[in-house]
Design a protein that fits this description.
Largest sheet of chain A: 5 strands, mixed
CATH superfamily of the largest domain in chain A: Periplasmic binding protein-like II
Keywords (chains A, B): DNA-binding, Transcription, Transcription regulation
Strand content of chain A: 15-25%
Strand order of the largest sheet of chain A: 4-3-5-13-6
Oligomer: homodimer
Family (chains A, B): Belongs to the LysR transcriptional regulatory family.
Protein name (chains A, B): DNA-binding transcriptional regulator, LysR family
Radius of gyration of chain A: 22 Å
Shape of chain A: flat
GO molecular function (chains A, B): DNA binding
CATH class of the largest domain in chain A: Alpha Beta
Order of helices and strands of chain A: HHHEEHEHEEEEEEHEHEHEEH
Number of helices of chain A: 9
CATH topology of the largest domain in chain A: D-Maltodextrin-Binding Protein, domain 2
CATH architecture of the largest domain in chain A: 3-Layer(aba) Sandwich
Domain HTH lysR-type (chains A, B): 3-60
Helix content of chain A: 25-40%
Chain lengths: 303, 303
DNA sequence: TGCGTGTATAACCTTCTGGCATGGATGTGG
DNA sequence: CCACATCCATGCCAGAAGGTTATACACGCA
């Protein structure tokens, strides 16, 4: 009786959403594909998991039983996966470092150099993560340690140390009325369309839309992108504006886009993060120390 | 990162056998198929799990890590599967009963009738198991309770009550020199070719070859079968002889085959078995009581 | 040199999965 | 009362994946 973790993920999504249509959306597959997969899972087990109705899909008792156990199964698999990868990188003397585009920026060079001095036999494998994964691969076990920006979903399950903070600016298309101003109040941007991160990034998306600083007004979404390049294009083409760390003005300068300081939004925090299981990995800890020693002050307190 | 339990099973088989060729045999797939699957698993994880050599496949450190965790993952899945199916059958008021061909024989009718009286609202779903599964579906969660013969592999993980015992006889082709004898000593059969169960049935196969009563002499295998019909044909066609419970003489009588009593082999035990998790399932316990009350004596002690 | 024991590759077939378009059932609002 | 929105199910097609057989390649050994 062989099952794919994919089937379990699909099943859980339907169980949680209570409807094929919404679950399909969340999973980025078409609704007919989900219909077929769920039916196949039921056939495989020989058990009806849902009762169908016009209002959606409701779990049967048996479905409830499976839905209760599936999350632990998936988590156990993820855990085994992480540990396997960690063993591999340790055996090969490779430290896998994930980073978000424009996370630590110029500090990165210094950190790597310092780490190379401290661990001469080790190689550093830098991996840039897509924006859809604000943990930069840490959640999947793709990397041992990551340079990230706070806050992000799942942050509580990881160990985090803040390295420094940086003001958030706004990126505007060149011809925008506000583009000539030296400084902009955030409330002036409330009604602007924003270029946003995909919905599945949750708290991350909200943070860069600054929903907390809008006094309850919903943001307008002009476009959704998940890569730096798409993001820049969307802004340059006038689909919307976007908040970005100050350093983006240097690292993502491009004709057609201007960056301006914004008041009234909290600064962005750059941090180094690792998994609890790497707490006792001396190489990871060495890297963390190199981060702390090669970035400007406010990195005393854990976040 | 989606994985199939099949991939984990394949991986474990190769890890345990230390060679693709032998593992492929055990898994009943071709060696090239296994080669591809293992490579795919490695690509999926981005980790080398084995070092290849002419002498076989040796686990890497990372492979060792995964091999240590995989059995628990598979067991957890099997457990969830069993519980889900059990919930389903309980909700539908169906008791799924597995049985081996010729397990309880004539007693079966009485047991079912008694159970129907005790649990009027319930339906009994009888499922005959293939000989390749001496647990009659209990191990996979296909059934809630099973009528089996002892001993079988995995018996210790289940709850078992012996119902009665039955002498083992021998089934011979009609023209066989011993076919005219009233009674046969087992040592007279030591050099006969036997019709055996498939190798993967382990202790079950050994029991019906009576390897324990051969004083260390290896049995001769004349044919391997996994269905009653094949088994009867193999014997009738003279590929070998086979031990069988006395009742087979009634239930599997057929021209070309004679059954004769054998001395020097222990009797076969017929038992009812259930999983530890069904220990508190009152319906299963009712069925067990019906078994005990509708079979001849020696069912006082748990086996 | 030929054989046995390993793994890898090639060519081919079948099954599975996903996407799109569409159908059927059932409420809901103008 | 009809048009529309919201569900899930079905049919059809393309591409990917798993399986099989035949064969290649590497090596130790008689």
């Amino acid at each position: 009786m062989d099952v794919d973790t994919r089937l379990l993920r699909y099943f859980l999504a339907v169980a949680q959403e209570g409807a094929l249509t919404r679950a399909a959306e969340r999973l980025h597959v078409s609704q007919p594909a989900l219909t077929k997969q769920i039916r196949q899972l039921e056939n495989l087990l020989g058990v009806r998991l849902f009762v169908r109705s016009r209002t959606g899909m409701a779990l049967t008792e048996a479905g409830r039983t499976l839905a209760d156990r599936a999350p632990a199964l998936l988590a156990a698999w993820e855990q085994a996966l992480r540990e396997t990868r960690e063993t591999a990188s340790r055996a090969a003397r490779v430290l896998r470092v994930g980073f978000l585009a424009s996370a630590a920026n110029e500090a990165t060079q210094r950190i790597i150099a310092a780490f190379s001095l401290r661990r001469p036999g080790w190689r550093v494998d830098m991996r840039q993560a897509a924006w859809t994964d604000p943990t930069a691969g840490l959640a999947d076990g793709e990397v041992d340690v990551a340079l990230v920006r706070l806050p992000f979903p799942g942050q509580d399950a990881l160990r985090v140390r803040v390295l420094f903070t940086e003001p958030r600016w706004v990126a505007l298309p060149e011809g925008h009325p506000l583009a000539t101003r030296d400084q902009i109040r955030f409330d002036e941007l409330w009604d602007e369309p924003f270029v946003a991160a995909p919905a599945e990034t949750g708290a991350w998306r909200d943070y860069w839309l600054a929903t907390g600083e809008r006094r309850g007004r919903a943001p307008r979404i002009g476009a959704v992108t998940d890569q730096p390049d798409d993001w820049l294009n969307a802004i340059a083409n006038g689909y919307g504006v976007a908040l970005a760390p100050e350093s983006a003005a240097r690292f993502y300068a491009r004709p057609g886009i201007v960056y301006r300081p914004v008041t009234g939004v909290s600064p962005s925090q750059v941090a180094v993060a690792w998994t609890p299981s790497a707490q006792n990995n001396p190489v990871v800890q060495d890297f963390v120390h190199c981060c702390l020693e090669n970035t400007p002050p406010p990195h005393d307190q854990p976040a």
